[in-house]
Design brief:
89 residues, mainly alpha
Length: 89
């Protein structure tokens, strides 16, 4: 476990929320290994969440409403924009 990962865990333990400066530091300093583990953990948590899909979808769309760059989020997690995902339905 690298020191950067330990530092991020400490931030979550103390603050429970990251601000933009901390996220920027993560982008600038995280190793490829940390980023791989981050994405693997995210996918695992998505797959293990016992919320029904309709509730997950509603929360994603509500989050997209609050962010003018909502497509960036969807493209980052699956490679498709919100519009493209909806067109696939």
């Amino acid at each position: 476990m690298d020191l950067f990962f330990i530092g991020i865990c400490y931030i979550f333990a103390i603050k429970k929320k990251m601000d933009k400066k901390q996220i920027q530091a993560l982008l600038e300093n995280a190793s490829d290994d940390f980023l791989e583990r981050f994405y693997e953990t995210l996918l695992n948590e998505i797959n293990c969440d016992d919320e029904p899909y309709h509730k997950k979808a509603r929360q994603l769309l509500l989050a997209a409403l609050n962010d003018e760059h909502h497509d960036d989020f969807f493209i980052a997690i699956c490679g498709w924009s919100l519009e493209s995902i909806i067109e696939k339905i």
